Amino acid sequence: MPEINGSAGRTPETDVIDFRAAEHLLDARDPRGAVKLLDEVIAAHPENTAARLLRARAFFAAAQLRPAELEFTVVLEREPDNAFAHFALGRTYERQGRAGQARRHFRLAAALDPNPDYLRAARFDS
């Protein structure tokens, strides 16, 4: 069988179905299952920032902090104004005990979007 989108038997529809299924797995607290599905989607579409962001969230939920950090960083290289990615990278650094780096990303998130969670994490008053 010829390869489609870099993976044998994959179609654009398969990738959309896997992406949506990964969202549901993450919501159902199965981040490792979500990562497995997203690995194939990203192999077929490495430029897909939404899939990378979802995989970063799944890594974070699975306490795989280094892979989460790397994925959030890729997302921010492509979308430096993504407030959620800054916030999530800040949370990742926070869980790794890297408070200075966390605060920088919390503040960037809050500057980009005045979401109350981002503002609280940024701790501008301290």
UniProtKB/TrEMBL annotation:
SMART domains: TPR
Source species, domain of life: Bacteria
TPR repeats: 83-116
InterPro entries hit by this protein: TPR-like_helical_dom_sf (IPR011990), TPR_2 (IPR013105), TPR_rpt (IPR019734)
Stretches assigned to coiled coil: none
Signal peptide boundaries: none
Keywords linked to the UniProt accession: Repeat, TPR repeat
KW Ubl conjugation (keyword) present: no
Protein name per its UniProtKB record: Tetratricopeptide repeat protein
Species whose genome carries this gene: Streptomyces seoulensis
Lineage: Bacteria, Bacillati, Actinomycetota, Actinomycetes, Kitasatosporales
